[in-house]
Design goal:
By secondary structure, the protein is of the alpha/beta class. The chain is built from 6 helices and 37 strands. Helix 1 crosses helix 2, helix 2 runs parallel beside helix 3 and helix 3 crosses helix 5. The chain is globular, with a radius of gyration of 23 Å.
Length: about 525
Amino acid sequence: MSSFDPQVQSSSHARSGVWDPSFDQHARLDPEVVGQTPWDPASGRGAEGSRVDAGATRIDGDATNEGGRTRSQTTDGKPVLIDPLHQSTEVTITRERTAVEQGGQLYAVSDQLVVATGNGNDTVRVTQDANGALALAVNGETYALELAQGQEITIRGGDGDDTIEIAEGVDVNFVIEGGSGDNTITALGGGDDRIIGGAGNDTITVGEGNNYVYGGAGDDVIRVEGAGRNVLYGGDGADRITAGRGFDYVDGGAGDDHIEGVAGNNVLIGGTGSNTIHTGTGDTRVYAGNDSTVVNQGGESVVYASEAIGDRISAENGGRNTVVNVAIDPTLGRSMRIEGSEAFVSRVQSDIEMLRASPNGQQMLAEFDQAAASGHVVTIRELQNEQNGYASMVPGYIRNGEAGQPTDVTISYNPQFFLEDLPAPSVILYHEMSHAFNGVTGTFMPGPFTGTSTPDDARDAAAGVPNLERQAVGLPSSHPEYDYGDGRVTSSNPHALTENGMRGEMGLDLRPSYALP
């Protein structure tokens, strides 16, 4: 949508001090990301390819090339401007900027320096010296990279068995797309990286930073060597995933997976298949999935498991398990529609499988199926190159204790996006599902939140946060309590259908306010 009405579109993410209730708080309006001036696609310097530093070719990431520019678009329809900067027999380097339209102006939401190697077995290495200078090597060719402010580097391996290495000490965010083939991807820098292995048996290693990894199809090996926050999805295939020393959210996906929790307070999800899960020594939540063996190696674990499908739970080294029996119905949530690329559909299916194994998630999916039987459908649509998530609908509001008009809902979801305050993409998705519940039942609570009983409440009131956002988080609103049926009377949403309900089930810190500190 090109403009935002807080009664029509709702977002999981707003930062205190920049949230304007007249606009959807996406990266487009966050001064930390793009500033508050419209984007001029002609801005930047002309493309340069001068040779510096003992033969390395200089690449200016702030350059433009209007004469060679081509246009593309994301799967959700946002325009992408592609400026070629350099081409050789080994690599093509472009600048890709993604924009959204707001009030008749374009705002950049993504600026990428893209390194594409094409097909073949390629070797790519990025280093950074003590002065911050970035060096790129591709199959023996060397480049000196200069990035625009806030720019990230995308490496696209294409087909072939590629070796891609980001050395320790590189303090830049990367998007790495391995492509088809048996790839070896090692990202040991300190940036927040997003890595897609692609089809093939990939080996992916990440170091420090807050990283997202999706192995894709194939028997992948994924491991963490740092202590940051990581989100790790195996995808299809028999994957082996080893978490790190910090918080890790691990989902094996489809296939017979082996998951090692190591240390940290983790969320470990088996997915479909016969899985082996070792929880490690932290405080862990486990969604066993189908026919899984769960071994607690010394920590405190809550295990959501199904006796009916043969999950086996044990403990070693003084570990203690609390087992919650969950009857998994593989048909739950089938009324939902998923729209996007093949990889997106597969990735979202992993989240839905987790919800089928979740006590709270089962309730949410059942609500959606019931609404679909009455003609009101929830769609999850791919959101690309935009760090947020939101739900769109024509809302029905509670008036005089009566529900309004139900409606269809579309959730725009970026499965790679998470923050320290929003620690997993599935938590963001569940926030939007909470909005979707209100949409398909006509139970949005109107008006702004006005409470000031706590500092967190006061922050939301000062930011003009609408009641409907506090509903989705699972916090009291300023609206009178509403009876949702089955004894669920609250000024929020029913607890199991809220972001904080899912956070509590996963053992995560509860969100104290909608506006992030």
